[in-house]
Amino acid sequence: MKKLAGLFGCYLMIAALVGPPVSAADGAEIIVSADQREQIRDLISKYSYALDNGREEEWLDLLTEDTWFETPVGNPRGTEALRRWFKERIASRHADVQVRHYALNTIIVPVSEGIVHARSMLLYTRQNIKEPLSAKVYATGVYEDEIHLMDKGWRLVSHKMGTVLPLDSKYFK
């Protein structure tokens, strides 16, 4: 009985990590493994690190050639438009200010094999690097991302950011 209880506990832990199976249009179950979920969360984290540190090529490598954005500061589509958008974001920063994008509480929902929707809460801060403990929350919001598994791994296909997006979404009910 003890062994059965232990196995059931392991099943619950794995189910919590992997998430519930989702049915595709043909009725087949789609499961995103714990390893894939970690890769997707890493992609979202790398997006923020590359953007906040001004690493353009590293940032672009996380996207596809036709990725599109919908943000309060522009709606670029495609590599060249995204490259210009990135450069404008970096150029608009004061040299003494460090910005940070925190993507938190990410939920991942499979759409079909190799395609997921991810939703994260956003906390955006700015800090004067010459003044310790000067960080201020500049905005909060929500990221809604469509992410595809490509030859090079998971990549952002669309990225929607809004400061007034509802916390609930059609994908996460």
Architecture blueprint of SSEs:
Blueprint: H1 2-18, E1 22-23, E2 29-30, H2 34-52, H3 56-60, E3 63-70, H4 79-91, E4 97-112, E5 115-128, E6 136-150, E7 153-162
Parallel strand pairs: 3-7
Antiparallel strand pairs: 1-2, 4-5, 5-6, 6-7
Structure description:
The chain is α+β, with helices and mostly antiparallel strands. The protein has one domain: Nuclear Transport Factor 2, Chain: A (Roll), CATH 3.10.450. 31% of the residues lie in helices and 39% in strands. The protein has helices at 2-18, 34-52, 56-60, 79-91, and strands at residues 22-23, 29-30, 63-70, 97-112, 115-128, 136-150, 153-162. The strands form two sheets. Strands 3-7-6-5-4 form a five-stranded mixed β-sheet, with helices on one face. The model is unreliable at 7-18 (pLDDT under 50).
What's the quick description here?
With 173 residues, the protein is an alpha+beta fold.
Q: Tell me the distance between the termini.
A: 36 Å
Name the strands of the widest sheet in spatial order: 3-7-6-5-4
Structure class: alpha+beta
Work out the strand percent. Answer: 35-45%
Query: Averaging pLDDT over every residue, what do you get?
Result: 87
What is the total domain count? 1
> Multimeric state of these chains?
single chain
How many helices?
4
CATH class: Alpha Beta
CATH architecture: Roll
Rg over CA atoms, rounded to whole Å, is 19 Å
Relative helix content: 25-40%
Q: Looking at CATH, which topology would you report?
A: Nuclear Transport Factor 2, Chain: A
The secondary-structure element order is HEEHHEHEEEE
Stretches where pLDDT is under 50 for at least 5 consecutive residues are 7-18
Tell me the major beta sheet: 5 strands, mixed
